[in-house]
Each structure stands twice: as structure tokens, then as C-alpha cells.
Records
---
Amino acid sequence: MNGKIIMMENIKENITTDEIWKLMEDINDPEIPVLSITDLGIVREIKLTDSGVEVFITPTYSGCPAMDVISMNIRMILLKEGFGKVKITQQLSPAWTTDWMTNKGKEKLKAYGIAPPVGKSFDKKYLETELKVECPLCHSKNTKLLSQFGSTACKALYQCNDCLEPFDYFKCH
Amino acid sequence: MGHRLSEWTGHGPMLEQDIAISNIALDLIGQSRNFYQYAATLINSEDHTERPKMLPFEVPTAIGITEDTLAYLRDAREFRNLLITEIPNGDWAKTMLKLFLFSTYQFYFYQKLVDSYDKQLAAIAEKSLKEVTYHVRWSSEWVIRLGDGTGESNRRIKRALEEVWPFTGEMFEAAEYENLNAQKRISVPVSEIKPDWQNKVKEVLEEATLEFPEGNTWMQTGGKNGIHSEHLGFILAEMQFLQRAYPGCEW
């Protein structure tokens, strides 16, 4: 019993924040399982403290139901790594933006059939007007907006006028 | 408003719109959770002897209160809200119109709240503003489509405008606590956002071929001081039932 505790403490002491970042890459967004929470830019900061670790996360949308699941998954993976005390802090400011999504994440989205966000969020025109979004299936730009709200809060529903397939668009936010 | 909009879930005019309105309801409930969570933290940090003044019920000292205490265990009189959020949805036209008028108010309110001296309120506003931008856009499009649509849709949204308009005056009339918080730069002087709100509403109504109600219409008030319409009691009865019947239950 004693030995086990010491071993756990050892893991805790030797681990660096870089390695914890690496662990975070294995946690997926439950609603878009092809993306990890680091691809999305949900994890903002990782702090090692004397007694454990504190992870700062930011929600994509205020009412995002995935946040509770994500928090739990972070906690589980860190407890498994031997951290006795895991604190998860939700941080609202600066507000999450699709600008934080990694290029790797955008590529994964596209391959999964979801059009990645077009443009940068600080440019108001991407938030307020209808955009030309490329069809992730046939790459045509001849597409139309069906609904500004899709299967989850972060997506809109589009349809391709060429291949006629409907597809999700991850809104610039 | 989030709770009201969620009543459309499964009843929307078509699947895409059903999903849209449910997403908006989710955003609004998420925003409320952020405010309630913060309020609970503030109340818990207050001196315990002060609490009875703020809440009408006993708070267990060891645990303190949570967002759920505030949502599920207060009675109608303890809620402070705009009456426009209580009125029944009516038809799609009435729901769209009240959502448009309310979202536009939220948009300008949050736009000022991001400069709050209270960092957490500013953060919630920053987050919410992005969401509300989409709500304004979506509901404006519906108001325009219905106003400038068929004879029937025009008749319905015109009637909605007559019914909902008297609930808009309250938005810009500050309650005493709002004035206090605005002076401390914690919150927003609500009367100051009226011109922006009017301009935006005018612009959309005009495009919808609807007439902006000029002049001094009689306005409903009271919600901000705990005097509500009869509808809030029914909303709370439904929303709070489980926690009242089975206190502390979780699933």
C-alpha cells in the first residue's frame, strides 16, 4: 500500500505540463469525436501545483452540454495518471473563438465531412452575413445556407447546390 | 426566455427551425447558468447573517447555495425579470417577434456590459454577445419574412406587434438596484441603450413592411420589482416541480 502511494507521487512529480498537454490530445469532443479538445482550443492553461494540477478550460457556447462530459474526462485521465488533486476551472474570458482551432483540427473536420470555419472572428462580416462555404464532399463553392443553427450550437446547416448533399458548417464564432 | 423557447422543441414548423430555436433556448439557459453560478458564489461569500435579507429561505451553512437553489427554490415574487420573457409563445410570429425585440435588447445590453468593472460579469457578457449576435440575425430574418410575406403571415405578425409592444418599455426603465449598479459601473444604464435599440428595431420593421409604433403607448411594468404576470407562476410550477417534490434529487 505504501509503495503504491510513493509510486503515484513519483509520477506526479516527474510529469511536466508538456506531457499533460499531450494527454489532453487524447480527449475528444463528445459531439465531434474527430476533434480533440486541444484541436478545438478548449484547454487554455495547465498549472502544476504542490498538491496536484489545475486545468483551465473555456466553453465553446454558454449552454454547451459537452462541457460537463469534457470536464469529467479530463478529471478521469489525470486521476488515472496519479494526480491526487485535479481542479478544473471554467474560464469565460477571453471568450472562446474558432480562431483558436488548430489547422490540424480544421483539416480533420473537413475530412470528417464538416466544413471548417471560414475567416476570422474579429472580422464582423463573418459573424453577420451569409458566407460562401466550400462543400467538404465535392469542394464546390456553390452552396447555400439551410439553417443558421445545425445539429449542435456550434454548427450551421448548409447544402451543396452541385452535389446536392447537405452538410454541417462549423460557424465562425 | 430560454425556458419559453424550449417549449417549441419538437413542435417547430420544420426540422431546421425546430433545431434553431432549441439551440437558442440552450444558449439562453447557458447564459442564465453563468449568471446564477456567479450570483451563488457572491451570496456564499457574504456574511451569513446578511443572507436572510437576500433570500427568503434558510440556507444550509455548510454547503451554501448553488445555481439550482436560485433557479428552483425561489418563488415568483423573488424573481426579477422582464415581463416579455414570461408571456406565452403564441404562434410562430409572436415567438419570433418577442425573440427579436428581446435579443436586440440583449445585444446592446451585453455590448455595454463588457466594460463592467466586475470582471466576471464582463466575461459573461463577452461570451454571450457572440451568441446573441446570431439570435438577432436569425430572428430579424423571420420578422422580415413574415412581415413581407403573405397576407396571412403579415396579419399574424402585425397582431403580434400589437400584443408584444407594451412589454418593451420596461427594458429601458431602470429599477432602483439597476441604477445603483450602473452608478458603480457594475452594470449598464439601461435607458442609454434605448436609441440604439429603437434604430435597429425601426430598420428591421421597415424592411418587414411593418409600422414602428410611434408615440407614447401604455407600457407594462413590474417584473423587475417582483410583480409578475400570472404566467410566471405556471412556468415555475413546471420548472420547479421535481426539486420541490423531491428536494435535492439528482439524475
---
Amino acid sequence: MEPPQAQTFLAAIPGQFMEVRLSDLSLPRGTEIPEDLRDAARRQIILRRPFSPCDIRKTTKGARLGILYQIRGPGTLRMSTLVAGDPLSLIGPLGNGFDVPADLRRALLVTGGMGAPPIEYLAEYLRTRRPDVDVRAFAGARGLEELPYEVRFDNEKGAILDEFRRLNVESCIATDDGSVGFHGFVTQCLHQWLERHRPGDGRCIVYACGPERMLSATAAVAQTWGLECQVSMERMMACGIGLCQSCVVPVRGEGGTAVNKLCCKDGPVFDSKDVIFE
Amino acid sequence: MSDAIDLSVDFAGLRLANPVCTASGTCGYADELADYLDLDRLGAFVTKSITVEPRAGNATPRIVETDAGMLNAIGLANIGLERFLREKVPLLEGMRPAVFVNVAGRRIEEYVTVAERLAGCPAIAGLELNVSCPNVKQGGITFGTDPEQIAKVTAAVKAVAGGKRLMVKLTPSVTDITACARAAVDAGADALSLVNTFPAMVIDVASRRPVLANVTGGLSGPAIRPIAVHLMHRVWREVAGPQGIPLMGMGGIRTASDALEFILAGATAVAVGTATLIDPDTAERIITGLAAYCRRTGTTRLADLIGGVQ
């Protein structure tokens, strides 16, 4: 990415996202399409797809953005044929992003499934810009296969995530099937860690991104420990810029009545105390 | 060369700089789109629906993509008449294009209440009567499929609309769209817009449930364009053309060629909807493309192409 767009993205906050046009990319060759995506490959897509970058860094020419994705449908199938140097149409950065207050002392990062990218970028962002903050990551998935990270085995600490090790951030893994790390939900893992280590002195915030049930469980753990919690919500959205009104998140308004906020413009990051989870 | 080409059209007595407009529900109340599109280049701006009371809209998922289109079931979520007058109308005041406000309701009295208040706003050039929303339980499409109801609501709103142009938005899901068009025109509509979305449904085969929380939604996008062009042509030929009523065409318009199909079929103006959600500057690209088409074909006045299909 070259200036002036590069400057715009270098100023992006972790948790912000962009709308990527994939409709004009080609599909992989028929034989390279996994069996379960053969039907999806026939779909004519038109809408952009929202992605949160997992990494944004300065280069000699401008900026480089990392998008972490899993091939799941007609959009990401097309994405898999991109090669270095291909043009890609992006609208962004969009949304609010995570709030990192000046007096933050400890950040507990929680991710589930494909909620990983903005959390990874948040870890990097905190490490490079806020070395005073203690950062620890908790990553959950159904099993080892679904974990969108590289797992590494450390003699002392057991299974850890290489992406966070490189940033010098301690990490814990939780899998539903116990295939690696803690056997159980990532939220149980977080709770257990808090029991053992306590949140410590100073302002501690839980930052979470993942499936809604995981976010709601994370919010409950945070509440148990009296911690602030910011959740990055996900909704099906057509435009990402507040036009279509499709991505509403119900939040508690004045007097406790539910008010719809837009995931794309008011979010995607919300204070977990405000969100009325499904 | 381009200044020799006249893109302007006369739309029910309003001079539009060009025929390209926004389609209601895909462009907010204008401020949302201003960062991405030079609104002053538009022919006209059509706002999201306004109802008397604020509406929260339907549960999510409210949209789902399908082949060459999408379904939406927003449920007329809007800030309500009072907030619209207070917060949004002042923003519309400085706009160069004509502003049409889309009006919706459950009962005729609700349409009338909204129209009466909007009639007093100098910033507003016209009203678009939404009698064709497929996603609400009361009102909407239940008005729009019955010519008698269309006539009643049109006449009632016309009586309070003052000098505002009244445009009635038709649903495509009727046996004979010309009967609905005729009912609206006979009851005093100054213009018609067509078509609204098609009632549709998508099922997730993994969960065996409808994808949309509302079960059904309105289909829009390129998938519906040829059907919309056909309906435009029928309404033009059988009702609007003979009576001199201008039409605003919409349904899957993404390019200047798409817009020209509607114009040749009888549309005086065209509205861009779903394409704006994907590329918010689509309307500007279409305006540029229309001028290029005119240059290429030696057309000095775009308006000469209206209904020009041979």
C-alpha cells in the first residue's frame, strides 16, 4: 500500500476493519477447491467482505497490511488466488477499534476461533506503543486444527502460540476437545488464570474478539472479577459504512431500554456492560 | 466537449442536473454517504424511509447475500419524524440536488401525518410514498398490492403535500403492475418509482433454517435488473408515457449501461441502491458514464433517449 492510503492505515487502531472487494478475483482451479466448498464456488458474489487486519506495518514504500483468513466460502475461496502485487480494493479503516486508555496497566486478550486477527494486532500495538502495559493472551478453538495460530511447545510453559511469543506476550491455549493446551473453553482458562494470578494493581482491561457466545461468557468472567471488558462484535453487514442498517447490536440505553447501535459505525468494539447478548 | 452534452432531465417540473439518484434505504439520510460521494453531483437524493414513530427494525441477521444480489429485511428501522425534522432536515438544506423523502406507515393516517409535517420543509422537493416494503407486518406491501388502497393513500397524502412532488414507489410482486401504476396516477401521483425489492427467502441447508431472522426479505441487486427493466417498459408504454408521468427506475443498476437500459425503457430518472452499498461512489461513475455514452453516440440531450427503445 502506498501513500496517502498507507498513512491512513498506519494510523488505524486495532479492532478497526476494512471492507474488501473480492468479487472480481478469480477462483482457484476446480481441482484445488475443497469438496465441501464446490457449491460455494459456483456462487456469484457481489458484496464486499469485512476483515480486521492482524498486522499493519510501515515499509519503505508505504505500508503492509496483514489479513488472516480461513477459506470458508465463495469470498475467501477467491481470496486464496491472490498473489503478491495483485491490486485489491479496500474501504477503511472503519469502525471505532479498541480503546487503550493512558492509565492501562494490564491487558488480558481473549480470542476464539476467527476472532484472532484484531487481537493479534492489538498485542503488537500494545507491545510497540505501550511497553508499560502487561499483556497476556488467551486463545480458544474447537481443536488444534481450528486454531488460527502456530502452536509451539515450550518445556516450561507447555503449548504456546508462536505469534504471541514473537511479540514477547505470554499466551495460553484452550481447546474444547483438549487436543492442545487447556481442556475447556477459553473463558474457563481466563477465569482459572485470574484465580491463580489475580488482576493485580492498576487498571486492567479484558479485550475480546470471537463468537458471540464466547464474548458473552468473557463478559461474565470480567464482571465476576470487576474488570472492564471490551468486546469486538460481528454481524452480517452489506456496506460497513452505516448505509444499510443491517448490522445492529442491541445495547442498554438510558433507563435500561434496548437501543440498536450499528456494529460498523458505533462498533465493532463495545463495552461488554452495554451489550445485550443473544 | 462534455459541456456540449446536456444530461439534465425534467422530473415532474423539477430540473435535475442529471437523471442519477440514490435509492431509498441504501444511502441513509445523506450525511452517512457524504464522505464517499460528492452528493452535489447527484440528480436527486432520496432518503431512507421515515415513519411517525421511531422504529427499531427487525432482529439480525437482516441481510444475506445471494447470487448476483442480496436480501434485506431491515424492517424500516428509522429515527422517526421528530428526530428527522430536528437533526436531518437541516443537513439537507444546503444540498443542491432535489431531495425526496421516503414516507412509510402502517395506516393511511400515519402517511398523512408525516407528509403534512414534511410539506412545511423548504429543503424537501418531494415525497416518495413507500407502499411496497416487503419486510413489515402492517402497511408497506399490503397497501402496494391493492390498487384501491394505493389510490386511497395517494389521494390522502396528495391532499396535504402542498407543493411537494408526490412519487409513489411500486412493488413488482403483483400480477399487473400497470393497474397499480394507473391507480396511483389517477389519484394524483406526480411521478412513480419502480421497482421495490422482490419478496424472497434463503435457507441455510446446514441448520435447515431461513438465514434471515425475519424469514423473508427483499431481493435487490443485478439479479432483478432485467425483470425491473421489463416492468419499467410496461408501465411506461401503458400508463406513464401516454399520461406524461415521469418514472424513476431502480433494480440492480451498477453501471451507466444499466442506467441506460432503464432510460430507454422509459425512465426519466434512475436510482442506485445495492451498488452504493458495495461501491459508495457508484452514482458518480454512472453520471460520468452517461456523458461518455452520449459523446460516443452523438447524443446532445440525454433526455431524448427516454423511452427510446425501438
